[in-house]
């Protein structure tokens, strides 16, 4: 008997509870048959009133019971065979850990180790064939530059900002870099992954940590920076020191981490030797058949059910129609957004996906509503809600949403960073004075954003051609659906880092457009005719534009400023926590 049961599988076993209708049906039928008319009718009238039975009552009961049984079993989704389903397996993720201690400025690899390392990382990110990539910078401690993401171009945007000056404290703790990289892989839900350490030397602590990391499933490889002869450099205190590439401990570290070692070369042979350009599958080699799953074969019960239902056109049609009605009931519609068949966490996931889609197309009001209804997603939903509110300028409500996210997930660094950005925006926003119109408010925001276009009535709302419009500084974007489906414990940080990278690029493009616009105005500008007097409004507009241009010229071009501030805040937080 157990052998037959092992061959049967139900996709929706909850429908089997409807079989309780069978004993209820039999009980009601029996009570009806027990009714004795001789107790209420005189005997001499019974032979006239009662119609002799035709013997079909039991047959009708059996037909109704069989139809009900077939309908319930079909709705339960029975399956007695399996079929191979294609299975998509992710490629091996990679975490790049770059040494940004002061020794990375050693010029033994002209022009410096750092320049060569940047170029090598750019080549790796461009030629790597799939798989998530993350970037970690380390010196005395390790910090996340870009979390795991499938878009390598977003990681490459940070390369120009990498320098020893962005690190809070100088040092050389490769063991902390390996531990931090393994933590990123673990938070993203990967049981296997690769870590590539870029450095010139290592110590025994790093070797022991690499062995423990490899035992946990994360392979540690090493790309050696520098030359065996080495060179001189100045540390953070200005002391002249020497550094050389020490191959022996680097090979020992790679061997302990069950990875590979190669020295940095001008060609691509080093990356090919380490094996990071063509990552393997994260769950091993994928077979052609894939996983086998049970089929839903309840549709085979439909023909006999329809045959029994055809008999309902005779006597007892209403009773025999009950199984057909059960069959026509919807079975867990997957398209319903608020279907009663979905669990609360499934409904919350649907709202979260709708919110992400609305956020991407710029409908922040709809995104706010969707994220608010996705409360069952916890910290992730509150983090996205804060981003949507901040995009609409509701800074106070955004801070409350970030606080709720941090209360549920204290280690969510993106929520902490976005909260600081919103707080900074609120501090830069002075209280509105009485009588100030919309034009003055736009001028204030344009000055804060560095927008030289202004918002005077002479130019209209569109501003000068080629110049961006003012607006509040946006926080990083909400996570994409790919991240929600990968699952990642740090699933929301992927798009947050991408948004920060896009924001930096947008700022650079904005400054370039402003520079070109000022040059064009300088070339095309001409003094007014002697007979013409400038209108007071034009004079004020010209003075405002000149003030904006002077302010823009004082803005320093610091590509690493964002990373420096981020690492400094993280360093202070770790000190407060005693880490």
Total count of strands: 12
CATH class of the domain at 94-274, please?
A: Alpha Beta
In angstroms, what is the radius of gyration? 35 Å
Question: How many strands, which pairing sense, and closed or not: the largest β-sheet?
Answer: 6 strands, mixed
Per DSSP, the total helix count is 22
Roughly what is the average pLDDT, rounded to an integer? 75
Question: What does this 3D model show about the protein?
Answer:
This protein has 579 residues and is an alpha/beta fold. The protein is 49% helix and 10% strand. It has 22 helices and 12 strands. It has helices at residues 2-6, 21-33, 43-49, 57-75, 113-127, 152-156, 174-187, 204-215, 247-256, 269-274, 302-310, 317-328, 344-360, 364-373, 379-391, 395-408, 413-428, 438-449, 481-486, 493-524, 536-553, 561-576, and strands at 9-10, 78-79, 82-85, 94-99, 133-138, 142-149, 193-199, 218-224, 231-234, 240-243, 258-263, 291-294. The strands form 4 sheets. It has a 6-stranded mixed beta sheet with strand order 6-5-4-7-8-11, sandwiched between helices. The chain has a two-stranded antiparallel sheet with strand order 1-2. The chain has a two-stranded antiparallel sheet with strand order 3-12. It is elongated and about 125 Å long. The two termini are 60 Å apart. The relative contact order is 0.10.
């Amino acid at each position: 008997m157990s052998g037959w049961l092992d061959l049967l599988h139900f996709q929706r076993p909850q429908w089997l509870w409807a079989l309780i209708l069978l004993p209820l049906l039999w009980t009601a039928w029996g009570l009806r048959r027990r009714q004795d008319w001789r107790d209420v009718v005189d005997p001499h009238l019974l032979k006239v009133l009662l119609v002799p039975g035709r013997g079909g009552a039991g047959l009708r009961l059996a037909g109704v019971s069989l139809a009900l049984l077939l309908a319930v079993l079909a709705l339960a989704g029975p399956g007695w065979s399996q079929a191979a389903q294609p299975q998509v397996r992710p490629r091996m993720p990679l975490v790049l850990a770059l040494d940004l201690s002061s020794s990375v400025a050693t010029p033994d690899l002209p022009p410096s180790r750092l320049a060569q390392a940047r170029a090598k990382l750019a080549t790796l990110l461009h030629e790597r064939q799939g798989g998530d990539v993350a970037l970690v910078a380390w010196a005395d401690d390790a910090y996340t530059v870009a979390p795991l993401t499938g878009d390598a171009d977003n990681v490459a945007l940070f390369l120009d900002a990498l320098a020893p000056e962005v690190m809070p404290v100088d040092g050389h703790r490769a063991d902390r870099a390996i531990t931090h990289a393994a933590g990123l892989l673990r938070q993203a839900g990967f049981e296997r992954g690769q870590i590539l350490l870029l450095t010139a030397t290592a110590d025994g602590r790093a070797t022991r940590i690499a062995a423990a990391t490899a035992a946990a499933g994360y392979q540690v490889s090493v790309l050696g920076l520098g030359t065996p002869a080495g060179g001189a450099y100045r540390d953070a205190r200005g002391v002249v020191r020497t550094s050389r590439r020490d191959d022996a401990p680097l090979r020992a570290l790679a061997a302990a981490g069950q990875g590979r070692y190669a020295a940095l070369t001008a060609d691509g042979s080093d990356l090919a030797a380490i094996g990071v350009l063509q990552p393997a599958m994260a769950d091993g080699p994928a077979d052609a058949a894939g996983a086998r799953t049970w089929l839903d074969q309840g549709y085979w019960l439909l023909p006999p059910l329809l045959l029994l239902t055809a008999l309902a056109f005779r006597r007892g049609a209403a009773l025999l129609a009950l199984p057909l009605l059960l069959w026509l009931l919807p079975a867990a519609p997957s398209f319903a957004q608020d279907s009663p068949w979905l669990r609360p966490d499934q409904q919350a996931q649907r709202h979260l996906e709708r919110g992400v889609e609305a956020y991407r197309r710029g409908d922040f009001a709809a995104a706010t509503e969707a994220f608010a209804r996705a409360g069952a997603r916890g910290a992730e939903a509150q983090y996205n809600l804060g981003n949507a509110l901040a995009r609409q300028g509701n800074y106070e409500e955004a801070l409350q949403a970030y606080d709720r996210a941090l209360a549920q997930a204290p280690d969510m660094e993106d929520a902490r960073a976005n909260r600081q950005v919103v707080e900074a925006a609120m501090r830069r926003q002075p209280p509105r004075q009485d009588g100030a119109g919309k034009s003055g408010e736009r001028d204030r925001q344009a000055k804060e954003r560095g927008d030289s276009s202004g918002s005077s009535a002479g130019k209209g709302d569109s501003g000068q051609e080629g110049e961006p419009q003012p607006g509040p500084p946006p926080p990083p974007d909400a996570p994409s659906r790919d991240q929600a489906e990968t699952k990642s414990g740090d699933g929301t940080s992927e798009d947050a880092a991408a948004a920060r990278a896009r924001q930096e690029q947008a700022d650079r493009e904005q400054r370039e457009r402003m520079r070109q616009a000022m040059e064009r105005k300088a070339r095309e500008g001409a003094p007014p005719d002697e007979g013409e007097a400038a209108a007071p409004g034009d004079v004020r507009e010209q003075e405002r534009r000149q003030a904006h241009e002077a302010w823009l010229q004082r803005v320093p071009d610091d590509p690493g400023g964002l990373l420096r501030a981020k690492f400094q805040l993280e360093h202070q937080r770790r000190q407060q926590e005693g880490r």
